Batch of 3 targets.
Target 1
Amino acid sequence: MSRAGQEAGRSCKCVDPSTRRGFLTAMSVLGFELAADRIPALAEPASERPKEGDFLVAVDSDKPDRLAPNDIPLGGPLLLAWPLDPATDTVRKGSRLNKVLLLRLDPATLVGSTIDRAADGVVAYSAICPHAGCEVNGWMADQQVLECSCHYSHYNPREGAAVIDGPATRALPALPLKVVEGKLAVAKPFTGRVGIVPT
Ligand code: FES
């Protein structure tokens, strides 16, 4: 090994890729968060993608109360949430790709498959923009569109988060919802792969 390489080795606070956690951490550092759902044997509950029966908790809340439809303001703004595995009480925040945006709209204004995916008017989509991975956290109430402020892609929440304009080339994956004991719960996994999809 070169002198420079040895110096780097001595000063590096490296993860140990031979362990499960070390491997996932190394992949995450390298920008391969998607690896967790591609390697089921390595996935941990906090990093696994949302599953049917998961509840949802607000990202900003210290108390991870399970969200009910009425916790989402009608007509916006949107609320960012994490899935919660009820079996282990694990908030699935081990991967940013699990972040979900929730928006409550008049059910009568929803279109197509979004009607069946919504619960009491609440629609859920991946909060990660498929263009370059920024967080979609803008709700333009005057235009009734979701906005990614990085490069201004706009999405129609009433119609499957289809791209209206901007550089994104695909819709935000939807997370179908249902109501269980008065709380919002995941009805089905994401409708597509979340995050940036390599071409
Ligand atoms: S990352 Fe969202 S528009 Fe570019």
Target 2
Amino acid sequence: MNENFKMLAKTLFGFEELLAKELRALGATNVQIGVRNVSFVGDNGFMYKANMALRTAVRVLKPIKSFNVTSEDDLYRQLQYIKWDEYLDVDGTFAIDAVANSDNFTHSHYLALKSKDAIADYFRKKYDKRPNVDVKHPDLQVNIHIQKEYCTVSLDSSGDSLHKRGYRSATNIAPINEVLAAGLVLHSGYDGTQNFIDPMCGSGTILIEAAMIANNIPANINRREFGFEKWNDFDEDLFDVIRNSLLKKVKESDSVLIGYDKAPSAVRKAIENIKNAHLEDFIKVSQENFFTTEKEVEGKTIVLFNPPYGERLEIDVPIFYKEIGNTLKRGYPNTNAWLITSDFSGGLKSVGLRTSRKIKLYNGKLECRLVKYEMYEGSKKAKYNN
Ligand SMILES: C[S@@+](CC[C@H](N)C(=O)[O-])C[C@H]1O[C@@H](n2cnc3c(N)ncnc32)[C@H](O)[C@@H]1O
């Protein structure tokens, strides 16, 4: 039962190094960085731990078979060699997630259909009946990945994407993905020893992820379910042991986390989400216009936010971003300020501060930059552009 096997954690572009670092810290071996993924080795218990604790992983896959394929018929045949009844009961349900990066397979929808037929027919031949497909809540989520002629079949141990942490109520604000928020915080170097401010906090995602990092709270402690909990080999006692050992490592940081938003509805939503995450003792949110604020804490401080982008929300981009630069200059000395935006020309150019770092990332399909401004006091103001 305690055998080691290879797994693949998928992530967002630009977070591969962060994820590898998280995996090593958790105790993974053979950690290898790919594009939008990191492979590693561990046992079942580690797979539970990875799902529970990783902040920058979107899902954790367990490959069960790899082979060469050149056509859909070929794939159908190869899939029938897998002993599916070891993983799924005939009365259970399954779903297929198929991705192909290959000239031979250009329709991933058709690929998924063909794979579904192969699994259904495997059962039909053996049991004269077949498991049903349930795309929303399957007992087994199968992942088919084809790279040129190389196909990897994996079981998705996460089920739903790991960004669904379980603390967020429905929202009409443009919220940032939780995995993206966690990665931004880790990129900023925040570790709970500095103060932390999100001055345009919307529904509070960045603050919540930051507070969980500060207190070493497992990223998915509030989540209702993981895919592996429905697997035939699920070991509930082991899962409890892993969960409890992660909870023992929770520490209480005395870092102050502060959020502002000028919209009362956003402030209400942030407070609700923070309560859902049981973090109300660590995060203080108030209704403020960032442009009229000044830093209200002493000592090392990180400011991190995703301001509105022109694409999503109605603002005059150059004026708004210029005001961001002015506010940081005026009110936030001795601060490392980070922001993520997709507004390169009108937005970033208008901030009027020199960036000390620029990281390419994506917010959904939007190409973005996470940029850093180092705000000094006194003579070092020379760092400014204008
Ligand atoms: C892209 S949203 C942030 C989303 C947030 N990260 C989340 O996860 O929900 C931008 C937020 O900036 C707020 N905002 C716009 N102008 C502001 C200002 N001058 N001061 C404070 N908040 C502002 C908006 O109300 C909106 O909630």
Target 3
Amino acid sequence: MNTICSALTNKYNIAGPRYTSYPAVPHWTRKPSSQEWENHIKKAYQVDATENGISLYIHLPYCESLCTYCGCNTRITVNHHVEQPYIDALCKEWDMYLSLLPDNPVISEIHLGGGTPTFFSPKNLERLIQYIKARAIIHSQHEFSFEGHPNNTSYDHLATLYDLGFRRVSFGVQDLDPMVQETIHRIQPAENVTRVMNWARALGYTSVNLDLVYGLPKQTVQSITTTFNHVLLWKPDRIAFYSYAHVPWIKPGMRKFTEDDLPNAETKRKLYQTGRDFLDANGYYEIGMDHFSLASDTLYIAFKNKSLNRNFMGYTTTNAQLLIGLGVSAISDTFSAFAQNQKTVEDYLRIIHSNEWAHFKGHVLNEDEKNTRWHIRQLMCHFQTQWPAGDQIEKMLITNKENIREMENDGLLVLSQNKIEVTEMGKGFVRNICMAIDPLLQESNQPLFSQTV
Ligand SMILES: C[S@@+](CC[C@H](N)C(=O)[O-])C[C@H]1O[C@@H](n2cnc3c(N)ncnc32)[C@H](O)[C@@H]1O
Ligand code: SF4
């Protein structure tokens, strides 16, 4: 068991990227033109997609009510008439991508994220997925997954998506304590989770994930203990245990509670430690950052056989290099370039309906960035990285010599001539280790990122 001492947490709890991409979004500076973007897509398709297929991320932004702790791109409404026009725009955007490809693509991964995908009716979700599948080939090893809110996921949602090939579902739980739920404006009785878990299992979903968050307002060691005691009875295949990212300058909803409601750094560390102890004692393995799974789950198997991958959707067992993001704020990744869609629904719909790419931000990677990305991915997915003599990482090891030596003295990593290995203790600080080899972090000292712990 790994006990994290509070001095280390305090020392390393600094603002930093989550590295679902490299460079991280705030560091994007070279947005490709429409023509360049189309060339990046065509090239990525040619180089990798015929072999590994493509990944699709579809952002469904609507939620009926705002959880004040939420850091996601959402649009709050109870008007369900918004569903149809939004799905029409997604289909149109998909057509724009298809028009660039020489044949129907092989899809190896679809993830419906949000917002709340289960805000949409099962019929509308079916229309969307059928439309996408109509001009695609589905990979024999495909992974289709979606995020469901336990309060509004119906049996019909689960059954419809199961019939369309979905076998993975993730439910947001966050915390079961009534006081915490009231403070984050998310009233969600445990019975609602039990109900959707039972339905998912009965239908044959092979991987059910629950999201939990530590560091939420009003959370205590006692409340998180009660939450874990309950959650473990459900025996989810995976648990995402996120550190609460407090970014009120981006998400004003977070100002609905006061900073005094938030646990201090020491309590936050104890919350994390309590959760980890529960996970360790109940057969869950730590897979990269924030993620835990049972040994039977494909995520653990991929971690063990070193095929784990990381992209904007988080950790994944597929290895497609071309990720197409559809919908408001969705990010696409061709491996050589990134592009992010407009963040408001109105802008997104308007631009897509005028037959243009809805990107407002992007980046084309240079060779040094590709190299750093490779090392960061190795560290995030496999807790180690190696390099040949003369690799550009060596410059960073010199620039950040003292910082890295300190991490080594603190027992977080072992550095040898051509290798960094993250220790058991260092796993909780893998973001900090990645930051030490990230040249782009040398320049900025603005509040761009949430805290690492
Ligand atoms: C799109 S939501 C999940 C689906 C659905 N909307 C729900 O809330 O159940 C994605 C997940 O991101 C995590 N999350 C959202 N805001 C966060 C924040 N500020 N800090 C850490 N995790 C956060 C939560 O665990 C949440 O379940
Ligand atoms: S946590 Fe989920 S339901 Fe709540 S506002 Fe965020 S995306 Fe919507």
